[in-house]
Amino acid sequence: MAPDPEAGTTPQKGGWRLFGRGSAREPDNEEAPGRGRLPKWNMGILNDKETIEVPGSVLLLAADHNEPLGLRNAPARTSHSSIPTAVIRPPEPLQEEKKKTSDGKIILEPQPEESANDPLNWPTWRRDSALLSLGLFCMVGGGMTPLLAAGFTDVAEEFDVSVSSVSLTTGLFMMGMGLGSVIFSPTAILYGKRPVYLFGAVLFIVTSVWCAVSKNFASLVVGRIFQGIAVSPVECLPSATIAEIFFLHERAYRIGIYTLLLLGGKNLVPLVSAAVIESLGWRWTFWVVAIVVGFCGFLLFLFVPETFWDRVPHPRKKSSRPSFFRRMSSKQHIRRSDAAAVSVPPSARHSLEGPAPAPAAHTHRRNVHVGFATETEPHHTEKDVEAAALQNTSEKPVEPQSSSVLMSAPIAAEADQATRPGLVIQEPSSDHSTKAHVSYMSDNLEKPKSPYSPNRPAGQDHTETDTESQSIASSRMVGGKVPYTAALRDQPAKSFFQQLKPFHGRLNKDKWHKVAIRPLILFSYPAVLWSAIVYSCSVGWLIVISESVAVIYREGHYEFNALQTGLVYISPFVGGILGTAVAGKVSDVIVKAMARRNGGLYEPEFRLVMALPVAITTVIGLMGFGWSAQLGNHWIVPTVFFGVVSFGCSLGSTTSITFCVDSYRQYAGEALVTLNFSKNIFHGLVFSLFVTGWLTDDGPKTVFIWIGIIQLILLFFTIPMYIYGKRARMWTVRKNFMEKF
User: Fold this and answer.
1) I need a labelling partner for 60 at 20 to 30 A (CA). Which of 106, 152, 496, 589 fits?
2) Which residues form a coiled coil (predicted)?
3) Region 682-698 average pLDDT
């Protein structure tokens, strides 16, 4: 790999030096394509043939600072995402105007605005009550997939159908979840998460009552499909809500609470439902669910207001004169040309040796708008900015791509980085616009008055630089009306009762069908496709076992009742908790060690090393579960293997999510929808169509040995993914499928 000009480190050259330690040297000339030969391999990973600037790679400069590479190659977003994606911050001296915690020890990320309506400025009790209310709702929703697992035989007897037919209630429920995620995710982006949560809760109650009073099996199946649609927001939206209401340093603990509740629901709800089935019958499980969800919906209505807040960089006020507090962080000069007559006055220029304060520049040109960008190159030269000015086909601010070494949870989509100074040209939204507006961002921009920082002069213009790095400037007018966030910025704090309003209108101008189709386009990205396969299997095999517990434990050798069958879920609950706790820690240790041996360069493909323990635990667990059940071993033996499978699947799901997000952080919101869609449709639905009948015909030994073989074959694709993953990332950047749609 070629030396990185910013890092000053050169990984050891050579082929498969998997543990070859890189050597450091002082930075000198940048090795651009064509000026030097790039090494073919590093740590067993093929480098791109043309550039070292591959989005997703991160140069580790210090314990508290990383330098993502490939920002100049990262594609611009053309629509919003459900997860607010942080942006890149270069090293900068601490500034006293940065907002900090009350003890002054932690700089707040993202930086809150002046407005008391900013969710980051809400009282702690308000934000935590929203988390707990949402977490309880997710706990119930997460456990709905195997709700009837212990009562399959009871349902089969009442409706006079086979147990394999009853398993369709699980597969079609998952199909509903997959379809619902594609429906509700873009709806939440366009109209807000609160109306989606409330509508989902109402539909959840209605479908639970529907299932409880079903007169025939067909009615039960259709009710479960719509119940899956109602539950789908549980999978695709809570991580985004957490990112919107908590600062970066607060998220880890809250994410842990959310993950624990969600994981607990998937394993404890079947246990409770088994007790209900044993004492009251299977219909009462849905009545109890309807009652509990009614309570959860009431909590959502009271304590989960709309959390959306537009953090795309934009001027808070339009002024006829430049702002006093705008600064430029590097030399930026735009020359006049035939293509774009955009200029910057000499007073706004300064040398590369040190920044100097200067007012923002405004100039006039018909049909050109230079707005805020969220990503640029490390240093801008006159040639760079001139090229940006001439590129009048750019219509969106650029979303950067960043990556982090320390990510071990599904919410890993959040980065602890902020923006670089940038410049972008936009076409005006109206044909009557005749002004070209040149705006600069800088890490030196002073922040507005905030309850977290010393008092600042009131009434000054400012630019938000800690952003949800989206490509659409949602501060534009929507349908001729002021957008949601812009209207709230200068209003007094909303009261508790004012926040109970269920719907706030449209939040941005994105097209619904475009936002809905983007997660499906990600299947053309090799890293996302691999992650979707591994994630689908990691969750799907647990569902397959859940569908088979009634056949094995109730109809087979063990002759358990419903309650005893439900108690089996204690094993995967324990295994899942251990797997979730271990996965992040072990993965972080491995990738940091590999990055050090790679001269300080972290590649997302380092995460794929975790596929080895995933393969060992899941294959042994699956084969052992089926084999021991077939031989009639003591019930504890297959139950322990069930826990081993859950442990390995937790490793697999965490690894697939972190690898996917590390590779394409700017598409994290869409990627989570992609993973859940594939898990629900391509695995949950497909296997439910035949696995129970297959189990009855051939026995658990044959079925689970073949499932273990399938798992092993799929995980073997990790090897080419590791070798060619970096080239595949750069290939997708060049093709740019997501933004061509």
Assistant:
1) 106
2) none
3) 86
